[in-house]
């Protein structure tokens, strides 16, 4: 027990001084608002034309085909009942290989 009595408690201390806290600068809200208003008034309104990006014919065709496939998929899944979905899942699980099954260990 005497070995541990000489150890001091608390956090470690850095050489050359203690913790130095930085002081926060106080900003006056009215000064910030005035600066924002002056900046807005000094800049002229934007006269740059807005660039409109149009899709190419290939992109439009791709999006149309993608939309049709999505609709077909939704209709196909909506036509199945819960019982049919469960039967399909069970059939799929039966067809899977038994690679991921837990191997039997021991005799028998």
Total beta-strand segments: 0
Summarize model confidence as the mean pLDDT.
80
SSE succession: HHHH
Count, helices? 4
Radius of gyration: 36 Å
Helix/strand structural class: mainly alpha
Beta fraction:
under 5%
Helical amount = 40-55%
Unreliable runs, pLDDT <50, ≥5 residues? none
Gap from first CA to last CA = 59 Å
**Based on CA inertia axes, which overall geometry fits?**
flat
Sheet with most strands = none
Question: What does it look like?
Answer:
There is one protein chain. This protein is mostly helical. It has a domain at 56-96. Helices cover 51% and strands 0% of the residues. It contains 4 helices and no strands. It has helices at residues 2-5, 29-42, 57-79, 82-95. This is Protein FAM32A. Residues 53-99 form a coiled coil. Keywords: Coiled coil. InterPro entries: FAM32A. It comes from Entomortierella parvispora.
Helix-strand layout with pairing:
Elements lengths: L1 H4 L23 H14 L14 H23 L2 H14 L13
Give a brief rundown of this model.
This protein has 4 helices and no strands.
